[in-house]
Specification:
With about 110 residues, the protein is an alpha+beta fold. The chain has two helices and eight strands; from the N terminus they run E-H-E-E-E-E-H-E-E-E. The protein has an eight-stranded mixed beta sheet with strand order 2-3-4-1-5-8-7-6, covered by helices on one side. A hairpin with a 5-residue loop joins strand 7 and strand 8. The chain is globular and about 40 Å long.
Length: about 110
């Protein structure tokens, strides 16, 4: 069997309408303080995963992000299989690239390359 070209789901972003109130709920749920806390993003690193809170009205549900070694190659692979790029790869800081695409049923999925 060929080795998988991704490292699994390590990041899940949750859309929120009130970042401060959501931070209180997720801090209680996870039992830890956020490791990243800003005006537009709060992030928790827990049990090998990163849970992020994003006040993004464009998101309608949580998005799971697969970590991959080559984001452009994986985008090409999934689009060749029928997926549609929603947001092309872009640098979100520190050299981290993120992209989202939809599967054939309209589910939004994400990719991360560090």
């Amino acid at each position: 069997m060929a080795e998988s070209a991704h490292q699994g789901i390590k990041t899940v972003l949750h859309p929120v309408t009130d970042l401060a109130k959501a931070t209180s709920v997720y801090t209680a749920l996870l039992g830890i303080e956020p490791q990243t806390k800003g005006d537009h993003y709060v992030g928790y690193d827990v049990a090998g995963q990163h849970i992020g809170l994003v006040p993004d009205p464009g998101m309608s549900s949580p998005v799971s992000y697969w970590h991959v070694p080559d984001i452009e190659a994986k985008l090409a692979e999934v689009t060749a299989a029928g997926a549609t790029v929603q947001k092309p790869a872009s640098d979100v800081g520190g050299g981290r690239l993120v992209a989202t695409f939809t599967d054939l049923d309209g589910n939004v999925l994400g990719l991360v390359q560090d």
